Amino acid sequence: MVFPQGLLHFQVNAAKIHAKAIVSFSSASPGLQILDFALFANNLTSSLVGKTTFLDPAQIKKLKGILGGTG
């Protein structure tokens, strides 16, 4: 699989058996994006975050308050 730079992604081993992965990065210092901050420490609207996370608006506002997000 190829992931564009900055795209949040994850993989799940649904078969629950041993799996192997070969990973390569685009540079020697590829960086790290923490999902919690990417979703809740920003100015995205709570309705948009709700559509992507299936959380209720009150929970989203609570997380945005803790992590410094707005919207």
From TrEMBL:
Domain of life: Eukaryota
Location of the Cupin type-1 domain: 1-61
A Pfam family the protein falls into: Cupin_1
Database matches in InterPro entries: Cupin_1, RmlC-like_jellyroll, RmlC_Cupin_sf
Protein name in the entry: Cupin type-1 domain-containing protein
